[in-house]
Amino acid sequence: MIQDIIFSEVNGCYVEIEHGTELRSVRFIKTAEKLMESKTHKITFELDEYFNGKRYDFSCSYDVPGLSAFARKVLNETRKVKYGSTITYSELAKRIGTRAVQAVGSALAKNPIPIIIPCHRVVAKNGIGGYSAGIDFKIQLLEFEQKTLMGDNL
DNA sequence: GACGATAGCCCTT
DNA sequence: AAGGGCTATCGTC
Questions:
Q1: For chain C, which bases have at least one atom within 7 A of a protein Cβ?
Q2: Which residues in window 89-118 of A are less than 7 A from strand B by Cβ?
Q3: Contact A26, A47 (CB under 8 A)
């Protein structure tokens, strides 16, 4: 198991990417100290591009064991949400054919690979909803995506 | 209206 | 058996 580290200007924190041959997990690291960046895996470079506004989607092979069938459904559906757009928990639930809206939220809360699976693009019907790493992150990510898309259209 | 409490949803632990 | 990254609904003000 190897850990890559990159810095994200978007939310001003480090991002740790854990992988074997395939991507295993992504975590945000809030720390004051300066960390050494390390980029070995393809997905790390892609994430780096993402945080620089130069990539809108990811090559998708990842290896995340221990997820229930339900959680997989939720995450798969979430992957389809396009860069810069959002979907509500209830709409997502509808798409995978369940009324368990809150269970959808719980599944997203355990998303092992944020950004790649864009759980930040899933919002509450009235409001923003939650985010494991803090809703401020979520807001920053969404604003960032909006901003970069605008830049492209000009 | 707006806001808070409540009661359902159904998966997870 | 309890509790969630939710929501629709029903009291209050």
A1: 3-8
A2: 98-103, 106-107, 110
A3: yes
Q: Which window residues (36-75, chain A) lie with Cβ within 7 Å of strand C?
A: none
Q: What is the DSSP letter of A143?
A: H
Instruction: Give the DSSP letter string of A16-82.
Output: EEEESSSEEEEEEE--SS----B--SHHHHHHHHHHTT--S-----B---S--HHHHHHHHHHHTSP
For chain A, which residues score pLDDT lower than 50? none
Q: Coil, helix or strand for A144?
A: helix
Question: Which nucleotide minimizes the distance between its C1' and the CA of A88?
Answer: C6
Nucleotide nearest to A119 (CA to C1'): C5
Q: Which tens digits make up the pLDDT trace of A61-95?
A: 888 888 999 999 999 999 999 999 999 999 999 99
- The topology under which CATH files domain A69-153 is Arc Repressor Mutant, subunit A (1.10.10)
